[in-house]
C-alpha cells in the first residue's frame, strides 16, 4: 500500500513548488561552499574535460564552482525545471554553454538513458528520497549503465543516525556498506566519512559521504 501511494505522489510538482516558494539560499539543503563534495571531486584528479554528471542538482552552487575550477563538460539533471532555470540564471553567461541541462526523473528516466561515459557521478541529498525498491533499483541501474570504466561515483546521503524526513518527504537512510552493496562488486569504495551539515535555519543534518570508483 505504501509503495502504491508513493508511486502516485506527484514528485515533480512537489519539487517545483519547493523551488517556487523559497529562494535557493533559504532552502534546507543550501550549501554556500560545498566543501565535502569539492574535496572528493578534487581527490578524483580528473582532467578538466571529464564528463561530470550531477543528479538532482537543484540550484547548487557546486556547478559554478566547478566551472570556475575549469571543468568544461558538465551535465546537470533535476526533476524540477524550476530548479534548473534558477541554476541556469545564476551562472555567468560566458559559461552556460559548458553545462547541459536535463529535466528528467531519475526513478523513471527517458532522456537520462541517452547518457553514457560519465567520468564522475555526483549526488548530494537525492538518492535518499527514493524510498521504494523499484525507485532505488532504477537509480542504481542508471549509474551502472552510464558510468565509464574507472569512473567515479560520489553519493552523499542522510546517514543511519540522520533525519528521517526532508522537505516533508520520507527518506531512506544509508551507510557506506549499504551503498557498496547496491553498487556491487564492480565498484570499489575509496573514501567515506560522516559529515554534519548546518542548514540555513541552524538545524543540523547528518550525512554519509562516499566516493566509489568503477573497476576497469
Ligand atoms: C534536497 S535537494 C538537493 C539538491 C542538490 N543536490 C543540493 O545538494 O543542493 C533534492 C533534489 O533532488 C531533486 N529530485 C528529487 N527527486 C528527483 C528525481 N526523481 N529525479 C531527479 N531529481 C530529483 C529535487 O528536485 C531537488 O532538487
Structure in words:
With 216 residues, the protein is an alpha/beta fold. It has a single domain, classed as 3-Layer(aba) Sandwich (Rossmann fold), CATH 3.40.50.150. Helix content is 31%, strand content 28%. The chain has helices spanning 2-8, 11-21, 35-44, 62-68, 81-90, 133-146, 176-183, and strands at residues 51-54, 73-78, 99-103, 118-124, 147-158, 165-166, 169-170, 187-198, 204-214. It is globular.
Give a brief rundown of this model.
31% of the residues lie in helices and 28% in strands. The protein has one domain (2-214): Vaccinia Virus protein VP39 (Rossmann fold). It has 7 helices and 9 strands.
Task: From the structure above, extract its key features.
216 residues, alpha/beta, Rossmann fold, seven-stranded mixed sheet, two-stranded antiparallel ribbon, 7 helices, 31% helix, binds S-adenosylmethionine
Amino acid at each position: 500500500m505504501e509503495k502504491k501511494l508513493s508511486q502516485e505522489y506527484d514528485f515533480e510538482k512537489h519539487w517545483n513548488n519547493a523551488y517556487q516558494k523559497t529562494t535557493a539560499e533559504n532552502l534546507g539543503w543550501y550549501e554556500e561552499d560545498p566543501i565535502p563534495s569539492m574535496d572528493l571531486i578534487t581527490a578524483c584528479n580528473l582532467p578538466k574535460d571529464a564528463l561530470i554528471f550531477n543528479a538532482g542538482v537543484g540550484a547548487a552552487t557546486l556547478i559554478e564552482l566547478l566551472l570556475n575550477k575549469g571543468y568544461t563538460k558538465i551535465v546537470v539533471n533535476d526533476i524540477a525545471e524550476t530548479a534548473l532555470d534558477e541554476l541556469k540564471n545564476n551562472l555567468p553567461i560566458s559559461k552556460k554553454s559548458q553545462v547541459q541541462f536535463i529535466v528528467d526523473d531519475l526513478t523513471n528516466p527517458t532522456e537520462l538513458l541517452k547518457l553514457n561515459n560519465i567520468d564522475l557521478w555526483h549526488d548530494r541529498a537525492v538518492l535518499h528520497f527514493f524510498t521504494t525498491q523499484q525507485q532505488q533499483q532504477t537509480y542504481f541501474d542508471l549509474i551502472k549503465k552510464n558510468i565509464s570504466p574507472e569512473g567515479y561515483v560520489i553519493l552523499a546521503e542522510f546517514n543511519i543516525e540522520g533525519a528521517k524526513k526532508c522537505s516533508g518527504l520520507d527518506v531512506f537512510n544509508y551507510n557506506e556498506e549499504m551503498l557498496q552493496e547496491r553498487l556491487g562488486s564492480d565498484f570499489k569504495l575509496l573514501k567515506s566519512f560522516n559529515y554534519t551539515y548546518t542548514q540555513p535555519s541552524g538545524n543540523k543534518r547528518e550525512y554519509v559521504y562516499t566516493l566509489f570508483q568503477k573497476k576497469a
